[in-house]
């Protein structure tokens, strides 16, 4: 598969769709089972958010399955979910400190 460094070296390659399609053709013929990560872990639904973020960082994943108390899949949490929650909390905090309310156009 072509790496992003190839595109940095020759940006014109980024527009060569036939070449990209050819490079990816062998991957498209594989099953999900052949591509999936075999390193499986999950996090409990009651675990702290920072533990989930630490586990993702430790294992190099951007999302992990969340299991309920019954050990069944409850959902998936991603780094993006965590970043968004932190951003929204900070935004609400800044909004409150500035004396504005949600929906106020002065933000």
UniProtKB/TrEMBL annotation:
Tell me which SUPFAM superfamilies the record gives.
Answer: CBS-domain pair
Residue ranges annotated for the CBS domain, each copy included:
36-93
Quote the PROSITE patterns the UniProt record gives. CBS
The superkingdom of the source organism is Bacteria
UniProt key word Transcription regulation:
no
Which Pfam families does this entry report, sorted A to Z? CBS (PF00571)
Assigned keywords, A-Z? CBS domain
**Record's Gene3D superfamilies?**
CBS-domain (3.10.580.10)
Q: Which residues form the signal peptide?
A: none
Q: What is this protein called?
A: CBS domain-containing protein
């Amino acid at each position: 598969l072509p790496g992003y460094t190839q595109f940095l070296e020759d940006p014109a390659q980024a527009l060569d769709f036939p070449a990209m399609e050819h490079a990816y053709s062998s991957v498209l013929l594989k099953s999900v089972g052949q591509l999936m990560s075999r390193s499986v872990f999950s996090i409990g639904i009651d675990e702290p958010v920072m533990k989930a973020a630490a586990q993702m960082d430790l294992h190099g994943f951007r999302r992990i399955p969340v299991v309920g108390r019954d050990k069944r899949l409850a959902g998936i949490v991603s780094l993006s979910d965590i970043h968004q929650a932190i951003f929204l909390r900070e935004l609400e905090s800044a909004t409150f400190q500035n004396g504005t309310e949600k929906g106020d156009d002065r933000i």
